[in-house]
């Protein structure tokens, strides 16, 4: 399989964009036609239909789509079928499929997670929680052509509770925990066929710039533009031209809650994609 960075470049070139559209089908915010229904089956079916409509409306300007697994798993078994249908729609669009489950476990458990994400759902990349150490990252790097976006500097307000702590590493150097984590992930990928990428929040552009300087070739997945307060300009300056996907979920999905939601989503995606042009 073609290495992930090359496929990222191809998807960005085809769409003229580094935009990643997050697919978080919240029943409290979806248009009523999709959120209503007396059964969980109706809810899962509506979530899938809504996401497929968003994919169709925005694929022209998006390089990738990122289903958030929690919004599908909440429906129970029917949610898995809904997720599978959405993943199929993303694959059919020709764009990258980023599976956002923030998985992270060791040994056979991690490998089964990776099998689910890469071999069953056919994801191009996944988000990975690294707290258990290098052997919780490695299973997600054992699949050729895939990318593990390791959580490093996240966009949520509580991210700094741990990520900003200064710790002494095995080499005796003191640096932020996020930097230890990023270095660990790079080491975990040594000799493995997958690509190490990083989740780097737009709300901390100074840290994004540090990550880019330290790892100029690593793909970055950047949440936090728009509703969380990050700006496209800050992200572009900090990224300095490196490989990147900038995610937006709520600002595109719920640009309108009415019958014209597809048009509103398309226009919101186009505006953000234009603002992210170098």
UniProtKB/TrEMBL annotation:
Keyword field contains Cytoplasm: no
Functional pathway: Pyrimidine metabolism; UMP biosynthesis via de novo pathway; UMP from orotate: step 2/2
Boundaries of every Orotidine 5'-phosphate decarboxylase domain copy: 18-265
Catalysed reactions listed for this entry: orotidine 5'-phosphate + H(+) = UMP + CO2
Keywords: Decarboxylase, Lyase, Pyrimidine biosynthesis
Keyword Lyase part of the UniProt annotation: yes
InterPro entries for the chain: Aldolase_TIM, OMPdecase_type-2, OMPdeCOase_dom, RibuloseP-bd_barrel
Alphabetical list of Pfam families matching this protein: OMPdecase
Active site per the UniProt annotation: 102 (proton donor)
PANTHER family, sorted: OROTIDINE 5'-PHOSPHATE DECARBOXYLASE
Name of the protein in its database record: Orotidine 5'-phosphate decarboxylase
Taxonomic lineage from the root: Bacteria, Pseudomonadati, Rhodothermota, Rhodothermia, Rhodothermales
Gene that this sequence comes from: pyrF
């Amino acid at each position: 399989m073609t290495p992930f960075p090359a496929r990222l470049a191809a998807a960005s070139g085809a769409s003229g964009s580094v935009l990643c559209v997050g697919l978080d089908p919240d029943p409290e915010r979806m248009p009523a036609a999709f959120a209503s229904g007396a059964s969980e089956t109706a809810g899962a079916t509506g979530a899938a239909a809504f996401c497929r409509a968003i994919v169709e409306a925005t694929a022209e300007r998006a390089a990738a789509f990122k289903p958030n697994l929690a919004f599908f798993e909440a429906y129970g078994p029917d949610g898995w079928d809904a997720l599978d249908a959405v993943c199929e729609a993303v694959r059919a669009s020709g764009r990258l499929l980023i599976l956002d489950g923030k998985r992270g476990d060791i040994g056979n458990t991690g490998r089964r997670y990776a099998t689910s994400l890469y071999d069953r759902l056919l994801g191009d990349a996944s988000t990975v929680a690294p707290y258990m150490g290098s052997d919780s990252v490695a299973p997600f790097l054992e699949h050729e052509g895939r990318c593990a976006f390791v959580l490093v500097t996240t966009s949520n307000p509580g991210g700094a509770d741990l990520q900003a702590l200064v710790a002494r590493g095995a080499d005796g150097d003191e640096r932020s925990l996020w930097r230890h984590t990023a270095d660990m992930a790079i080491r975990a990928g040594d000799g493995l066929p997958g690509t190490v990428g990083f989740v780097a929040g737009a709300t901390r552009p100074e840290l994004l710039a540090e990550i880019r300087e330290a790892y100029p070739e690593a793909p970055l997945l950047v949440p936090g533009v728009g509703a969380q307060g990050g700006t496209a300009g800050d992200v572009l300056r900090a990224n300095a031209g490196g490989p990147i996907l900038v995610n937006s979920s709520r600002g595109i999905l719920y640009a309108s809650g009415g019958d014209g939601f597809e048009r509103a989503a398309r226009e919101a995606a186009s505006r953000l994609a234009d603002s992210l042009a170098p």
